[in-house]
Amino acid sequence: MQGCLQEHARSAGFLILLLALAGRASAFLALEDTRHWFAFGDSWSATGYDESRGYKTSLQPLKTSSGGRTWLEHLSSSPACTNLYDTQHSLAVGGATVWSGARAATLPNVSLSDQVDRFEQWFVTGTKPTRPRWRPSSTVFSIFLGTNDVAFRWWTGESIAPHVQVTFPIFDAQIERLYKLGARNFVLFTIPPYERAPVVVAVNRIVGDVRPKLGASVAAWNAVLRLYALEIPRRYPGTSAKLFDTWAWFDELLDRADEYGFLNSRGWCPLYARGLYSPVVPEQLNLDECGVPLEQYLWYDGVHPTWAVHRLLAASVRQQLSRKTSESQLALPSQAELEANFPIVQGSEEEKEETAKEYRRTVLAKEDGAPQPAPAGHSDPATLFPVLG
């Protein structure tokens, strides 16, 4: 795979540019000085935000793939990041891709270009008096995409190398658009080790050699993204770009899941997963059929992590973007950091029982008349694989 990728890179003028040394970047905007944040991405960043309903994100119901808040919502609700409360806007959509040509029949097929269109329409040229007046010097633009671009190609048996050759010029074109619209501070996320997702592990048991092939595709994508992040300041004067290595971060978390209280880090519970993108999933949800509370599951379904994982991710993002953090520091957060800046408010047992009853009534019973118990380690590949993000 690596040799194939290199061969295509040599024949593509854009990718050849990525091999050049990047120029000196502008100093990156520290999180403490950030006043607005615009997120572009897939289900890892999607919150269900609808700008046509208003600009205050706190007034809109969350619809996520985590059973609770995403990393950006955790970040903006942290007592350490009050400067981002109601000034972060996620334009991300579950199932989104960089390239519109990477399509799946079961998903909305939203591209990065579509998300930039929304940004321009509502946050640049919009005429509503309540439109946020963001400034380039104090605004972060994050892009967390690529998982679906890779997964869709892998699922159809196509090589990722020619797809990367086509996709990254498209990626760059949208960076250029954002730059012309005022973006100066970029955060790019590598894609996580998707080959370790429960549904992929399950498929691998049936088909064999699936995980190494998918892992090679993920590595190929991330290798080009790392080079591209270095190239942004050279191509676009006055910009800075940070790379958050989600792959390394999540890989370590999967290896150390028990240290962070995840009693189930290999499977998921279908009854919890039924709340995907539902606005009524309580973070403290605890269903007896699932064995342990939602927050003690690492996986919300076969491909998406729970809100508890997003909480850890938010803490690490805060650490890496803080002005007090060294350039090379990237680590899982300490318990002290989590307790101080990302506390969990535990409800009473009575409150938890009431939330569980409400969830059964509004989500489970609504779908099929009565909730059906299912094994907590359920991992049927056909159940959730089409729902990527």
Key traits:
389 residues, alpha/beta, Rossmann fold, 5-stranded parallel sheet, 5 strands, globular, disordered N terminus, disordered C terminus
What would you say the CATH architecture is? 3-Layer(aba) Sandwich
- Helix and strand sequence: HHEHEHEHHEHHEHHHHHH
Beta-strand content bin: 5-15%
> What is the CATH C level class, in words?
Alpha Beta
Q: Shape from CA axes?
A: globular
Q: Biggest β-sheet, characterized?
A: 5 strands, parallel
Count of individual domains: 1
Helix content: 40-55%
CATH H-tier superfamily: SGNH hydrolase
From the 3D structure, determine the CATH topology.
Rossmann fold
Number of helices: 14
Strand elements, count: 5
Radius of gyration: 20 Å
Which consecutive residue ranges, at least 5 long each, have pLDDT under 50?
1-16, 19-23, 369-388
How would you write the strand order of the largest sheet?
2-1-3-4-5
State the end-to-end distance.
24 Å
Structural class designation:
alpha/beta
Give the topology:
Layout: H1 2-11, H2 13-17, E1 36-41, H3 71-76, E2 88-90, H4 112-123, E3 139-144, H5 147-155, H6 160-180, E4 185-189, H7 198-207, H8 210-235, E5 240-244, H9 246-255, H10 270-273, H11 307-321, H12 335-341, H13 349-368, H14 381-384
Parallel strand pairs: 1-2, 1-3, 3-4, 4-5
Protein model, in words:
Residues 345-389 are annotated as: Disordered. Keywords: Hydrolase, Signal. Residues 1-27 form the signal peptide. This is GDSL lipase/esterase. The chain has a single domain (2-20, 28-384), classed as SGNH hydrolase (Rossmann fold, 3-Layer(aba) Sandwich), CATH 3.40.50.1110. The protein is built from 14 helices and five strands. The chain has helices at residues 2-11, 13-17, 71-76, 112-123, 147-155, 160-180, 198-207, 210-235, 246-255, 270-273, 307-321, 335-341, 349-368, 381-384; strands at 36-41, 88-90, 139-144, 185-189, 240-244. It has a five-stranded parallel β-sheet with strand order 2-1-3-4-5, sandwiched between helices. Helix 3 links the parallel strand 1 (36-41) and strand 2 (88-90). It starts with a helix and ends in a 5-residue tail after the last helix.
